[in-house]
Amino acid sequence: MELCIKDLTKEFKDKRAVDRVNWTLTPGIWGLLGANGAGKTTLMRMVAGLIKPSSGTVEYDNVSIDVLGGSYRSIFGYLPQEFGFYPEFHVQDYLDYMAALKGISRKTAAKRIEGLLQTFSLADVRKKKIRQLSGGMKRRVGIAQALLNDPEVLILDEPTSGLDPGERIKLRNLLSEFATDRIVLISTHIVPDIEYIAASTAIMKEGKIVAAGTPKELLKQVEHKVWSACIPEYDLHKYEKNLRIVNIRGEEENMVSIRYLAKRPVIEGTKECAPKLEDLYLWLFPEEEVE
Length: 291
Ligand SMILES: Nc1ncnc2c1ncn2[C@@H]1O[C@H](COP(=O)(O)OP(=O)(O)OP(=O)(O)O)[C@@H](O)[C@H]1O
Hints:
The chain is α/β, with parallel strands linked by helices. The chain is built from eleven helices and 14 strands. A six-stranded mixed beta sheet has the order 6-7-8-3-9-10, with helices on both faces. α7 links the parallel β7 and β8.
C-alpha cells in the first residue's frame, strides 16, 4: 500500500499553489503542516483526484490515479475543508445517501452507519437535521462520511476545526487505531493535532515542502535554538519587539518566564529547552501565531 506523489505542481492563473511536491506515503498517519495559503488544500484536492495537476502524477501502488478512476474512489475517503452538507437532510439519511453514492450495498451501509454513529457520538442526533447541529457535530458527520467505505486512503483537510478539546483527543485516538493498516493524511495549521500521532510530517510553505520527517528529524532544525528565561514583566515589551517569543507565563513578583527562539541565548540566566514541533513551526513561519 503506497501513495506516491511525484513532482506534483498546480498553477492557477497567476499563482503556483503547489510547486513540484514529491512525497511517498505508506500506512500510518502523515501530517501536513502549513500556514494559511501554503498550498495544503490544493495538494490534497489533487491527491483526492478532484482537480487535475498542471504537471506531475499521483500513483497508488504504482498506478496513476487517473488510470484507476472509480476503483481509486472506492478505496478513498476525503473530508474537504469546506464541507458542503445537505442542511435539510437528517444525519442518518445523509449518511445513507452518501453510502449509496459511494456504491456501498444497503446491508453493509446499515452496519457501518450504525458503527460510525456510535463511534462519533452521533446516535442521539441521527434524526436531527444537519443544519440544527453544532459546528463540532457537523465536523463529526463529515468525518463519518469519509469513513463510510472503510477507506484504505483517508485524507482529512483540517479535521479538527470546530471540535472541542475532548473531541480532538477522541479523534486523534481513533485515527491512531484506524491507521495501523491504512494511509491517513491530515492537513492542519494546529501543531498539537498531529504532533503526537503523525509518524511523519511535512511542512509546506509557498507551495513547497520545506521540511519533512519524523518529529525527531524535524526537531533537529531547532536544536540549540529554543531557550527560556525569566524577565521582569516591564521588560517584556522590549523583548517582544526583537525576539521570537513562543510562550509567556506569568511568575511571582512581577516576573514572567518566556520561551524564545534564537540562534544563541540573548538574555542573562537563559536555559536551553528541548524543542517541540511548534517551535519549528514558528521558526519557519515567524509571522504565524501558534495556536
Ligand atoms: N481556484 C483557485 N484559483 C486561484 N488561486 C487559488 C485557487 N485555489 C487556491 N488558490 C491559491 O493558491 C494558494 C494555496 O491555497 P490553498 O487553499 O491550497 O492553501 P492552504 O494551505 O490550504 O490554506 P488554507 O489553510 O488557508 O486553506 C493560495 O494563495 C490561494 O489563494
